[in-house]
């Protein structure tokens, strides 16, 4: 049986060192993608970097997507553009990989095998396939093939996410649907078209991944955890809650509530409220930002 055409899709704004790590990982994967689509969000430096570092084992294309005047990254739009580019080129399996992620050697092969497995093929609705993302410590960078050897030993698993054994394809239970995220996942071209991709009402950070999960679930689809499709997440500074994204998180929470009738990201929203950055109006059932300075809040790096 012929293997499906596999495309890796990556959206980028900055994080050039991380993109280099991903490109090196893909060049030395035991199954290289037929196409790698890199969408640059308002970042003219991506194209020359890719041209210099992509290698010749796979076809890599760069697509530019502008950033609107408000500066909010069009994450949903960029992912949809990446998918449309891959589908137009004949891709049958879409593998979304965050720019911070270096694929393990077997990631693409494992996703491809999982998509053809009996549990996934037996589902009537669309399926989302999610591999494990493990975390590299600060200072670990991938610049050449030799740097790949120690990643598995250096990485730490995410404590809140399932980690099935290699070759296991496990259906998520009801409580796990909201653990879906777009750092690393695969979906068939047919299923992508069935659920319609990412909702572009979301602008900037937060909510769009949970919306995908809600959409697929509403269509009678399934979420699967795929053992062996590991990606190594390269370190970058973060804050918890993400106070630098308070405006986007609050706005996108409202978009989600209008679509689904409940609020996602409640842990962040409550933390924003405690820090004086957001407030909830019980009468109107709406969240709003207060306009207070995020720099004045008590944030914790993670």
Description:
The chain is α/β, with parallel strands linked by helices and 302 residues long. It has ten helices and 14 strands. The strands form three sheets. Strands 1, 2, 3, 4, 5, 6, 7, 8, 9 and 10 form a ten-stranded mixed beta sheet that branches. Strand 12 and strand 13 (286-289) form a beta hairpin. Helix 1 (16-27) packs parallel to helix 2. The longest helix is centred in the C-terminal third of the chain and has 15 residues, at 246-260. Residues 296-302 have low confidence and may be disordered.
Brief summary of the model shown:
The chain has ten helices and 14 strands. By secondary structure, the chain is an alpha/beta fold.
By secondary-structure content and strand pairing, the structural class works out as alpha/beta
- Low-pLDDT runs of 5+ residues are 296-302
Tell me roughly what share of residues is in helical segments: 25-40%
Backbone CA Rg:
19 Å
Please tell me the overall pLDDT: 93
| Molecular shape | globular
User: What is the number of helices?
Assistant: 10
Give the percentage of residues in beta strands. 15-25%
Major β-sheet profile = 10 strands, mixed
* H-E order: EHEHEHEEHHEHEEEHHEEHHEEE
Q: Give the N-to-C terminal Cα separation.
A: 45 Å
How many extended strands? 14
Q: What is the fold's blueprint, element by element?
A:
Blueprint: E1 6-12, H1 16-27, E2 35-41, H2 46-53, E3 59-65, H3 75-88, E4 93-97, E5 101-103, H4 107-115, H5 118-121, E6 127-135, H6 151-154, E7 156-157, E8 169-171, E9 184-188, H7 189-195, H8 208-218, E10 222-233, E11 239-240, H9 246-260, H10 266-274, E12 278-281, E13 286-289, E14 300-301
Parallel strand pairs: 1-2, 1-4, 2-3, 6-10
Antiparallel strand pairs: 4-9, 5-10, 6-7, 6-9, 8-10, 11-14, 12-13
Helix pairs in contact: 1-2
């Amino acid at each position: 049986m012929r293997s499906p055409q596999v495309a890796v899709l990556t959206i980028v704004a900055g994080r050039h060192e991380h993109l280099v790590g991903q490109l090196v990982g893909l060049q030395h994967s035991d199954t290289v993608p037929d196409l790698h689509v890199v969408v640059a969000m308002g970042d003219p430096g991506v194209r020359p970097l890719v041209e210099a570092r992509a290698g010749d084992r796979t076809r890599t294309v760069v697509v530019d997507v502008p950033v609107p005047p408000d500066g909010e990254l069009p994450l949903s739009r960029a992912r949809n553009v990446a998918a449309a580019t891959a589908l137009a080129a004949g891709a049958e399996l879409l593998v979304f990989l965050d720019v911070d992620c270096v694929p393990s050697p077997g990631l693409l092969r494992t996703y491809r095998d999982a998509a053809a497995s009996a549990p996934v093929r037996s589902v009537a609705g669309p399926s989302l396939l999610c591999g494990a993302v493990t975390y590299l410590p600060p200072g670990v960078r991938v610049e050449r093939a030799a740097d790949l050897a120690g990643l598995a030993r250096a990485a730490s698993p995410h404590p809140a996410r399932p980690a099935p054994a290699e070759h296991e394809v496990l259906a998520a239970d009801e409580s796990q649907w909201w653990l879906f995220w777009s750092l690393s996942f695969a979906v068939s071209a047919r299923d992508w078209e069935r659920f319609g991709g990412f909702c572009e009402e979301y602008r900037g950070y937060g909510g769009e991944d949970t919306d995908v999960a809600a959409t697929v679930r509403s269509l009678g689809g399934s979420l699967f955890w795929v053992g062996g499709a590991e990606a190594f997440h390269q370190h970058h500074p973060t804050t918890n809650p993400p106070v630098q994204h308070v405006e986007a998180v609050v706005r996108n929470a409202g978009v989600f509530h209008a679509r689904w009738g409940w609020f996602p990201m409640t842990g962040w929203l409550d933390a924003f409220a405690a820090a004086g950055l957001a407030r909830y109006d019980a009468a109107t059932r709406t969240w709003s930002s207060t306009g207070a300075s995020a720099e004045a809040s008590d944030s914790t790096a993670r």
